[in-house]
Amino acid sequence: MMRHTWWAVFAAVAFLGCDTSPPVAPAPGGPNTSSTSPDPASKVEGKMGPAVTLTDAEVANLKKLPEADAKLALEQKICPVSDEHLGSGDMEPVKVTVEGQTVMLCCEGCKETIEKEPAKFLAKIGKGK
Length: 129
What we know:
By secondary structure, the protein is an alpha+beta fold. The protein contains five helices and four strands.
């Protein structure tokens, strides 16, 4: 009987692992902090919720836009209609003006939607009235 008990303990430790080390506090900036800090232009916090971080590829795609459009897109980060990251995918972001606010959309297809309910979508990116 005793032999079966030790075997069960051994199997459980082997399967689940045994970590007797004390818990380690996460590094400043959270558990996903790497040794290289991200481009400050790739991170934003605001009314749209938790920080949005663009990938290096998304930032590179946005930097291909005319300078003023690139700046707007890097500040905004997401399409207020689709919630997609600007600069992701194959489509170039589209600049539109609704209710006097200039915003970037992920694609031409989102233009009609934001024009129907501008307040709802402008509020998502902190530009609502």
